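re the bet — no i am not wrong, look at it urself. input seq straight from the record:
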Amino acid sequence: MSTLIGRRASPPRLSRLYSLLGGFAPLSSLDRETVRRVAEHARLSLTDEELDRFAGQLGVVMGAFAELDRVDTEGVEPSYQPVAIEDVSRGDEPEPWEWDPFANSRSVEGRHLRGPRIT
């Protein structure tokens, strides 16, 4: 299927990938040379077998993005966070202790722990 990746505004993260693929091109044109160029930008060295296999796989991925480009999103607010972020921190209020932190220590001087002497 020779679907054309739309010329309408694409998300910024895809624009870099589109430019690596040589702009907005039909998906059937994702050949070994295109995959080699993308791999070169990613600093990957691929064998001939991998170039052939990844050409087909990259075409499928780009086809999925082209399908998403066709979805009508007019009037839909962008969602940058799928789950609402809320402050889950509690207030920093002092609370009384119900236990003695010095009870099990043998090296106590008043309200301080005494450590070994450093020479």
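see?? Residues 1-12 have pLDDT under 50 and may be disordered. told u. also The longest helix spans residues 48-69. so pay up
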